[in-house]
Amino acid sequence: MVIHPSDNVEVREDGHKYALRDIAAGEDVVKYGMPIGHATKAIAKGEHVHVDNLATNLGEVLEYSYEPEFADLKRVEPPTMKAYRHADGRVGVRNDIWVVPLVGCVNRLAERLALSCGGVALTHPYGCSQLGQDHETTANLLARLCRHPNAGGVLVVSLGCENNTLESFAARLGFDPKSFDSASGTFARTTNHEPRTTSFNIRFMRAQDPGDEYERGLELVKELDAARPKERVEVPVSELVVGLKCGGSDGFSGLTANPLVGRFSDWLAARGGSTLLTEVPEMFGAETLLMKRCRTREVFDRCVRMIDDFKGYYAAHNQPCYENPSPGNKAGGITTLEDKSLGCVQKGGSAPVEDVLGYGEAVRRRGLTLVTGPGNDLVASTVLAAAGAHLILFTTGRGTPFGCVVPTLKIASNDALAAAKPNWIDWNAMSAPDVDAFARKVVAVASGEPAKNELAGDRGIAIFKDGVTL
């Protein structure tokens, strides 16, 4: 592939970078129209540009100013999709039974119960021996997932002696913690919550209570199955919430897969839908592009706090905030964090940034929202699901079988990956870059077509942790 034939520079199809002109030592190296670092020594025209001659320009906390530069998208009438409409008005693209353990001690029990009904167990290692914000993070995230509309029914399983008690967890969901009826597996609603807050199909079980916890769990699962929505109905695509995520990248990620997802993000926003972009460390070096698109000064200020707080998190652990590209990323042609980030943020398209959410908060506005979360695939995808994503578009240049609890479509950045791993890859952005065709695929998955991760049964969650374990 010759990207710039007028420069008469031969570029191999390996995803790596080659200089289009001579670059002096210390001079910025520009890609995507912005610096991705500086040359650590002179680089000749046509020479390979990578870790041996390119270094990051990133430092620590910066000063930002609000200089808005965005245009609203032209609104388009949304098509429809087939989805499940819950009694409380929520729309889900799946109708699963989710079994949510409140502590890792009952993970295997949760898995057995989920297996009995073709459901999903949201296993994790936490819920006890955590202090302060770590405990709150675990409990709040699990509570948010319990409200997810892709769950036709939810069984919450407690052990009985953990910190994340059944009663305190029920209170987070808007139930009266003193009202547990073990015979029905329910709590009474509190009067100070809106009915829709607690009207979803949910049951609770404490494993230490019944004689045979598995048999009791089966009874509750059957009740949940009987009460979940029965069939899909036509709903506008404007109801759809889509998470945007990068996996292991290569040099084509920012040229094929991420731009395609960005065009889809704009496609959905123009039709009244919502997209969620996370991976804050992979915004470093490209954050000003997002800040210029913040709808208001308030949104801009929240964006700045999100960036600065994450840099502060790195500093608190005595780690540099610019150390990100993994060995796989580097092997694929990604050199610096700026290189990764400038490709990464393209998933957000060109729409205005309408909101910024903290970790574990739910989507509030239509259009593009930034969500606080790390770059780690499992943790970032989980925070997107917890924020309300019905499905996730997961771009990758390296490939992964990973799937979140919601459908996780893998979009390959290159032909070789798509050909080698058809059991992982849902779409090849290099060979099929048309956004309308891609949008039809996304709507088809939202309407019930299984993603590859669902076919493989690869569905799970991971929770962010930043504290001691007792």
Describe this structure in words.
The protein is α/β, with parallel strands linked by helices. It contains 13 helices and 19 strands. 50% of the residues are buried.
Shape, principal axes of CA atoms = globular
Arithmetic mean pLDDT: 91
Helicity range = 25-40%
Question: Beta fraction of the residues?
Answer: 15-25%
How would you summarize what this structure contains?
By secondary structure, the protein is α/β, with parallel strands linked by helices. Helices cover 29% and strands 17% of the residues.
What topology does this entry show?
Blueprint: E1 17-18, E2 28-31, E3 34-39, E4 48-49, E5 54-55, E6 80-85, E7 91-92, E8 96-101, H1 107-117, E9 120-121, H2 132-146, E10 151-158, H3 166-172, E11 202-206, H4 213-227, E12 233-236, E13 241-246, H5 257-270, E14 274-277, H6 287-291, H7 297-316, H8 327-331, H9 337-344, E15 353-357, E16 367-371, H10 377-387, E17 391-396, E18 408-412, H11 415-420, E19 427-428, H12 435-446, H13 452-456
Parallel strand pairs: 8-9, 8-10, 10-11, 13-14, 13-17, 14-16, 15-16, 17-18, 18-19
Antiparallel strand pairs: 1-4, 2-3, 3-5, 6-7, 6-12
Helix pairs in contact: 1-4, 2-10, 5-12
